[in-house]
Design a protein that fits this description.
This protein is α/β, with parallel strands linked by helices. It has four domains: about 10-145, Rossmann fold (3-Layer(aba) Sandwich), CATH 3.40.50.300; about 150-225, Helicase, Ruva Protein, domain 3 (Orthogonal Bundle); about 240-395, Rossmann fold; about 400-470, Helicase, Ruva Protein, domain 3. About 45% of the residues lie in helices and about 15% in strands. It has helices at about 10-20, 30-45, 75-85, 105-115, 150-165, 175-185, 190-205, 210-225, 245-260, 285-295, 305, 315-325, 340-345, 350-365, 385, 400-415, 430, 435-455, 460-465, 475, 480-490, and strands at about 25, 50-55, 60-65, 90-95, 120-125, 140-145, 170, 205, 230, 270-275, 300, 330-335, 370-375, 395, 495. Strands 9-11-12-13-10-14-15 form a seven-stranded mixed beta sheet, sandwiched between helices. Strands 3-2-4-5-1-6 form a six-stranded mixed beta sheet. The chain is elongated and about 90 Å long.
């Protein structure tokens, strides 16, 4: 049996062949991949194995593995050849959408439908353009070939491994390593995956578990090229977030479930989390940490770019971005400030269509795709978006508590290479009450700047002095902050223990 036998694409071909369908229309720009799949089908799904014939307008008809014939058969002639061919076979007609515009070609295809039924023959039109005339649309099965799944990519990696070893390179072909590399390649076409592998091998003349970052870099280039999706390197872990113990505990529990993958029922697999709260309190940082915790790549959908009009109608661009991310599962998808991205930019009618699609997509999306959304004003979102079943949980990130603020100070000091073990930070609890995490970070930066200007080593005194120059958001925007906190008081799960009163 072939190693690609269990791939999604080959399963589709098997179903077509076993159902006896004689005509298929495969929409794909990956001719070599389709050829490899048809070659696999001809060798494994026919008894005895069938021949694969390939036709192009420039080279005519040839048997797979043989040179093109001197007599180049035109579109009508190749259909006549198929009609006269008595044996089981697969015929691949590349870029045959243009000949379909001719009446005699359409009529001859309808003739072939009857003739090929009794011969176990399959005629496959392979083209990147969808054009199916009305006369034959009920006779032909349409297949849109999506990007390779994990099984097909692992089979591809095994084939590449043989070529790399033959060229003098080294390859780790353990199942665990191939699985890791295959996951890194998910979302790429076969050609893109081939370029990514060769790029990784060129750097070290090896393909192993250390090659994953190079493969992800190729994916980053692909995703960023769309303009609507951005690949975010997962450099933040849960230990780099100060406070939020309840949300951290929830994520670590869900991580165990997420790692079980296909062994879990679909309704148990974590779907996503909505994090709301006051600006500067660590919502975005938490989403980045989720990707690191789940050991998954992180992609951010740029709602401003989607509404820019550069990618067509916003609802169509949004749907295309979501479907593209499905092909890259498993992954974490980040919708940043989702309420501002949609409600302040959508024109009349667009908002309803986008929300309608998003709600359905959240319910039906591919398993393994975890959605992390952030919002400052969750009260601007419709109730149906935040009901149970869309997101696994809705967390509220409040102003950090006393101990959390000290933890945030230590996190930012450690990140900047400062040993704070000898610092007495306790008095900072009083001076920083009502501060956000972003304001604490800015205080640390200001203190380090002052110490550097004086050619001095940073001490707690520099931190105490820097607090005098910060006016927290909880004072400058008191009414808005109080509104958010009051709204979330009994409507969301807190990311930290309760301390503040309403």
């Amino acid at each position: 049996m072939s190693e690609t036998q269990d791939s999604r694409a080959l399963r589709v071909l098997r179903e077509i062949i076993e159902s006896g369908r004689p005509l298929a229309y495969v929409r794909s720009a990956e001719e070599e991949r389709v050829t490899a799949l048809l070659r696999e089908a001809a060798a494994t799904l026919f008894t005895p194995p069938a021949a694969l014939w390939i036709w192009t307008l420039t080279e005519g008809l040839r048997r797979d593995g043989e040179r093109p014939a001197r007599d180049v058969l035109g579109p009508r002639a190749v259909l006549d050849f198929i009609a006269a061919h008595p044996e089981p076979a697969i015929f691949m007609l590349r870029d045959f959408h243009e000949p379909l515009k001719e009446a005699d070609i359409r009529r001859r295809l309808r003739d072939l439908y009857e003739l090929c039924l009794a011969r176990r023959q399959l005629v496959v039109i392979c083209t990147p353009v969808k054009f199916i005339p009305q006369e034959i649309e009920r006779n032909i099965v349409y297949v849109e070939l999506v990007v390779p799944d994990l099984a097909e990519l692992m089979s591809f990696l095994r084939r590449e491994a043989e070529a790399i070893v033959a060229a003098g390179g080294s390859v780790n072909t353990s199942e665990a390593t191939l699985h890791q590399l295959g996951r890194a390649l998910q979302g790429l076409t076969m050609d893109e995956a081939r370029h990514a592998v060769r790029r990784a091998v060129a750097a070290r003349n090896a393909l192993d578990e250390h090659s994953a970052p190079s493969l992800l870099e190729e994916k980053r280039l692909l995703v960023n090229r769309t303009g609507m999706i951005e690949y975010i390197p997962a450099v933040t872990n849960l230990e780099q977030i100060g406070g939020l113990p309840l949300m951290k505990k929830w994520l670590l529990e869900r991580r165990k479930l997420f790692m079980m993958g296909d062994s879990l029922a679909a309704e148990i697999v974590p779907k996503g989390v909505l994090v709301m709260g006051i600006s500067g309190c660590g919502k975005s940082l938490a989403i980045k940490a989720i990707a690191s915790c789940f050991e998954l790549p992180l992609y951010r959908i740029d709602m401003i770019e989607i509404f820019s009009g550069r990618h067509g109608q916003p609802e169509g661009a949004f749907a295309a971005a979501c479907h593209m991310l499905e092909s890259m599962a498993p992954a974490v998808v980040w919708f940043d400030e989702i309420e501002a991205g949609i409600s302040t930019q959508a024109k009349e009618g667009e908002l309803g269509r986008i929300f309608g699609f998003f709600l359905t997509w959240m319910q039906e999306k591919t398993r393994g795709l975890f959605v992390g959304a952030t919002a400052n004003r969750i009260d601007l979102l419709p109730a149906e978006m935040i009901r149970k079943g869309r997101f696994d949980e809705v967390f509220f990130v409040d102003l950090p508590l006393d101990d959390e603020r000290l933890e945030i100070f230590r996190v930012h000091l450690v990140r900047r290479g400062v040993d704070s073990s000898s610092f007495n930070l306790e008095p900072l609890k009083k001076f920083t009450r009502g501060w956000t995490g972003a304001e604490i970070e800015q205080c640390v930066v200001s203190a380090m700047t002052a110490a550097r200007l004086n050619d001095a080593t940073l001490t707690e005194e520099h931190l105490f002095k820097a607090t005098a120059n910060v006016v927290p958001l909880s004072k400058t925007m008191k009414e808005q902050v109080d509104l958010i906190r009051n709204w979330a008081f009994d409507r969301a799960v807190r990311a930290s223990p309760r301390e503040h009163a309403r």
